[in-house]
Amino acid sequence: MSLVARGRTATDIAAEVRAGRGTARAAVAAALTRIAEVEPRLNAFTLVLAEEALAAAEAIDALPLEQRGPLAGVPVAVKAELDVAGFVTTFGGRGNSTPVQSDAELVRRLRAAGAVIVGITAMPEFGQFPFTESVAYGATRNPWDPDRSTGGSSGGSAAAVASGCVPVAIGGDGGGSIRIPSACCGLIGLKPARGRVSQAPHAALWGTLGTGGPLTRTVADSALVYDVISGVTAVDRWSAPPPARPYATAAADIGPRRIAWLTRPALGPVRVDPQVVAAVERTAARLAAAGHEVVPVDGRWPDVQAAFVPQFFAAIRECVGLVEHPDRLELRTRHTARLGAWAGGPILRKAVELGEAARRSFQDRFGEYDAVLSPTLACLPPALGQLDGAGSIRALLRSLPMIAFTTLANTTGLPAMSVPAGESADGLPIGVQLSGVGDDEGPLLGIAASLGL
Question: Is 79 assigned a catalytic role?
């Protein structure tokens, strides 16, 4: 039985609360009611902050209208890798036990804009696999079909939005972890350019690879959130050039763009499901009908695994070294960290150099286009249990169809966005990816908006 529900958008909730036509408390209470209805079946949340959320909502309602922020009263869920003051940052496991004292910068900006944090969402330990399953918290189920995976690693966030619990949930993307669950759950997920969103109190997320960002149901909601959370601090290792204009303005620009498209993966064991290929072809036709110049291109998707794999292993090794109780981590996680012992020093520096070379190559190849359309995933949402009985190596092999098209944006630092592109014959959502050629996310938002999303 499907548990998908659209619910109200963040744009509508915030507009009503700012105008005094609705209350933050009512919006948050509705979110908490929906969470109570679906959470026993979905397992999207590791912690629901009901009392804290209602108190925060009442504080917003007590403000004069002119002091209510752009996200006034919007219920938001955040991934378990983000610090939320007063609670343990679990990273999806049991490695930490001490509550943090302060919010992450991203969470602080959400609260300052009037958003209300209603809960913390599930993830695989350290986000290392594109399946939201963990020993500590179990498996998160897909609202479209509870026997299917949400993908990952921001799968709890995806389930929370797709089931109508919240209009916005924050994820993180180090190899596709915003875009993969968005594709699995029929959502919009934009991984921004490297250095667009602060990772403070940390200098970076997974070295050059990772960034935070929202999962939503509408382009307008994604733009609204990015206008709040974009910008970095002195703590951050990376800083992107300022966006050309506000994201809400960019999302409203649905004028014609030049878009390349292809469906062939890099050479290797991955094969793209024919239904995914058909979804890309349909989307190309829809974009052409919307007035864009849409051009099929020859060749395969670039192979960036030599840049990605060493950085992935180095990132997990670093994560293991940061927690309070590494002995409490999953055996699979500790195995990944041991396997990554080689990924340091000159090897890691070479991987970063290869990522920058891949960026230049991608821009040379597609520089005449505003975006590149491709599959998000090579497969349909997989069955639950992908990590059952799987060690690190087997889990990584099972991940390949999920990440075949996503890791390029992480190694290059370029933005990329998954958008809904219909359903499979079995009624499962299919996502397609729009990849940026420069650091500006605006063209991707405008193209997605031109599809009526």
Answer: yes
